[in-house]
């Protein structure tokens, strides 16, 4: 019999005595066992997290292939959109090129860049004064630094930068972007607040109120009047068309992130490129309205909704978004808000 597993007689009594002794253990006996269990559990959780991240990042890479193919197909079918602007921002230390859109995670990404530069302070997350300090840092240090390398450069230079860096852009469903604009710049702001002030005054003067329908009418009119296939002159950046701002048909971005999967996309991009993104959850807007994007979109009169979809069609088609995502097509369309 294997001596490692003794049975019967004195050995069995000894085993019983050992078990009884452990029924009232001393603290010194328990602590190492408890610590071992904690460490083992932590290791299991870490392994499970790695497996989950691996699965998510595999899906992320599949999504990248689909998004890029979608853009390529759009550009081949719609050559009239093949020579648009490219507002490239560049972070030299990390060799990171980023083309941003307002109302598409730009606040969060600028905070990520603050922390990558080692400039993030605990006080920035505390109260209005802290938020203002972080805002000023972004406006006065971060954005000028990002623009300095590429803003005034020619197209060839920007393309070379995009081809030879960790380049990316983030896009969003254009209807959700308009709703976010309304919540953030109209519902959440005082009438005379600086940001979006001139647009608010124009909307109020032209349409008589600051309702969501009035904002949408204003966006439609601005895009119709001031935009051609390849450019817009004097259109506010908060609803400047996404397809037109980053020259997707000619700029071979390494990654196309979507706001709808932003946390996963940023995590996986960081893991692949070995960039220490922190997954900052920064959305300082505390929305007064509890209505969802669908609620707001379904408030629009049918004709206004259809006009909005028409002017946003390039964004919808290029990035594979459905105009019906937030609209209940079988409902009775309202005729006014």
Give a description of the structure.
With 337 residues, the chain is mostly helical. It has one domain (49-319). Helices cover 56% and strands 5% of the residues. The protein has 12 helices and 4 strands. The protein has helices spanning 9-22, 27-77, 106-116, 127-150, 155-163, 174-187, 197-207, 212-226, 242-245, 262-273, 293-297, 302-319, and strands spanning 88-91, 96-99, 166-171, 255-258. The chain has a 4-stranded mixed beta sheet with strand order 1-2-3-4, sandwiched between helices. Helix 8 (212-226) crosses helix 12 (302-319). The protein is globular, with a radius of gyration of 27 Å. 26% of the residues are buried.
Order of helices and strands: HHEEHHHEHHHHEHHH
Which strands sit side by side, in order, in the main sheet?
A: 1-2-3-4
Global geometry: globular
Q: By helix and strand content, what is the structural category?
A: mainly alpha
Task: Give the termini distance in whole angstroms.
Answer: 87 Å
Give the secondary structure arrangement, pairings included:
Elements: H1 9-22, H2 27-77, E1 88-91, E2 96-99, H3 106-116, H4 127-150, H5 155-163, E3 166-171, H6 174-187, H7 197-207, H8 212-226, H9 242-245, E4 255-258, H10 262-273, H11 293-297, H12 302-319
Helix pairs in contact: 2-10, 3-4, 7-8, 8-12
């Amino acid at each position: 019999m294997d001596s490692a597993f003794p049975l019967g007689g004195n050995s069995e009594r000894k085993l019983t005595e050992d078990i009884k002794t452990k029924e009232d253990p001393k603290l010194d006996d328990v602590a190492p066992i408890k610590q071992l269990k904690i460490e083992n559990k932590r290791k299991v959780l870490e392994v499970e997290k790695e497996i989950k991240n691996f699965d998510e990042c595999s899906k992320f890479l599949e999504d990248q292939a689909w998004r890029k193919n979608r853009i390529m197909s759009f550009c081949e079918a719609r050559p009239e959109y093949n020579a648009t602007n490219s507002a490239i921002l560049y972070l030299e230390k990390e060799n990171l090129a980023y083309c941003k859109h307002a109302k598409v995670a730009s606040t969060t990404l600028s905070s990520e860049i603050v922390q990558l530069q080692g400039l993030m302070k605990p006080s920035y997350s505390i109260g209005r004064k802290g938020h203002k300090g972080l805002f000023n840092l972004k406006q006065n240090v971060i954005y000028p630094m990002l623009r300095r390398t590429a803003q005034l450069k020619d197209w060839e230079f920007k393309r070379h930068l995009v081809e030879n860096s960790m380049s990316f852009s983030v896009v969003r469903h254009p209807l959700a972007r308009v709703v976010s604009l309304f919540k953030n710049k109209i519902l959440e702001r005082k009438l005379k607040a600086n940001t979006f002030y001139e647009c608010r005054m124009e909307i109020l003067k032209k349409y008589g109120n600051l309702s969501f329908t009035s904002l949408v009418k204003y966006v439609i009119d601005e895009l119709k009047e001031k935009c051609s296939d390849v450019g817009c002159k004097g259109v506010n950046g908060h609803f400047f068309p996404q397809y037109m701002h980053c020259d997707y048909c000619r700029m071979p971005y390494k990654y196309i992130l979507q706001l709808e999967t932003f946390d996963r996309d940023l995590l996986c991009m960081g893991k692949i490129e070995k960039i220490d993104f922190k997954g900052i959850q920064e959305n300082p807007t505390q929305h007064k309205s509890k209505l969802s994007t669908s609620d707001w979109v379904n408030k629009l009169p049918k004709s206004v909704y259809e006009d909005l979809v028409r002017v946003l069609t390039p964004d919808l088609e290029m990035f594979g978004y459905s105009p019906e995502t937030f609209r209940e097509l079988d409902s009775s369309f309202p005729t006014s808000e």
